[in-house]
Amino acid sequence: MLSGCAGYTLGAQKPTHLRAITKIAVPTFENLTLEPRIASLVTNAVIKQLQNHGSYQIVAKSEAEAVLKGQLASIDRTQFRSDLNNVLRTSQIMGSLTCLFSITEVASGKVLHAGNASADSYIILEANLQLSETQLIEDAAQRLANNLADQISEGW
Description:
The protein is an alpha/beta fold. It has helices at residues 38-53, 129-153, and strands spanning 23-25, 30-31, 57-58, 66-82, 90-105, 111-124. Strands 1, 2, 3, 4, 5 and 6 form a six-stranded mixed sheet that branches.
């Protein structure tokens, strides 16, 4: 029975180039979009996802072995579905959020990993358009955070 499990290990399987990193700092992402307060929303979502994965301990920059820096590059909203009777009236919108990120080793300043993460989200428009758009952005931020955390926490 044990020979069938040869080579498998329990727990996190970080990418090999990030295997030595255990403590990481995540400062607030830089916002290159015109959407206010989205940087803190995405940063908090990324921290929560990294904590859920358990691969890294989130610490202050002074205690960190590496720093995860991110830039929110774009947020796009497009019509996903239109009203049956009026094709100019939107009934459902799609939001796309894109983020560029890098992990830099504190001791040497060397970039250990660089990449991008993106996410799409769809929402049916309600009477309160601002609330619908806020929910769209929050969902896209959660999905982006999950994609980013998967990239730096899963080694396969």
